[in-house]
Design a protein that fits this description.
With 215 residues, the chain is an all-alpha fold. The chain is built from eleven helices and no strands. It has helices at residues 3-9, 18-44, 47-54, 58-64, 68-92, 97-113, 117-127, 132-160, 166-170, 173-188, 197-209.
């Protein structure tokens, strides 16, 4: 067999096609935008700086996103959407509430606190009051879905006697509160007094649902 024929039989590394290149640029833009929003806030963040971070021309951003608000919304949708879906699925599972509570703790620690999702939450806390449309979008895409799923599961728990307080059904924010506290604390005070986020959340679950881990 001729050498050229041998080479033709070798598996060559496939080059990315146009769609894959476009998707990669889009992901790079989203990552750069989150960096800029986190560093400067929504109002001060500039598309020029995002393009520079992403290694693309400014015009490339407009090929993917209408404006800065659409870009911010897609960051929320693409990063928070999969997590919200996972939480909704967890709340719909037919498992003891205490087991579910432990799963929620692990989900938050691993999928929110250990990722850039916590930066989105920080952004909403700082930018939401100044930009109500962003807050409304976040509420609709994230909070309302999580709280609706939580209320349905907590109502079942109330009906079956797993919990005895109606307040948890009305205010699922009681479950989410230590996670928000952890994000605020670690951003401001962790260098003075480090916080064990998992232990904090687990302590809250013990208070709400009793000690111990369900099997």
């Amino acid at each position: 067999m001729k050498p050229a024929a041998k080479r033709s039989l070798k598996t060559e590394k496939r080059l990315p096609n146009r769609e894959e290149k476009s998707a990669a640029r889009r992901e790079a833009i989203l990552a750069a935008a989150l960096d800029e929003f986190s560093a400067r806030g929504f109002a001060a963040a500039r598309l020029d700086d995002m393009a520079k971070r992403a290694g693309v021309a400014k015009g490339t951003i407009y090929l993917h996103f209408r404006d800065k608000e659409a870009l911010f919304q897609e960051i929320v949708r693409s990063l928070m959407g999969p997590f919200v879906g996972t939480v909704e699925h967890a709340f719909n599972a037919d498992i003891p509430l205490r087991t579910l509570a432990n799963q929620v703790v692990e989900l938050f620690v691993r999928e929110v606190f250990g990722t850039r999702r916590k930066d989105i939450i920080r952004l909403m806390m700082t930018e939401g009051p100044r930009f109500p449309k962003l807050a409304e979008f976040y509420y609709r895409e994230v909070l309302s879905r999580v709280f609706n799923a939580a209320r349905k599961r907590l109502q079942r728990a109330l009906d079956t006697g797993e919990i005895s307080h109606k307040a948890l059904v009305r205010y699922p924010q009681l479950i989410a509160a230590p996670g928000i506290t952890a994000i605020i604390w670690t951003g401001l005070f962790d260098r003075f007094e480090p916080l064990n986020v998992r232990e904090l959340l687990q302590a809250q679950m013990n208070i709400l649902f009793g000690e111990g881990r369900a099997s």
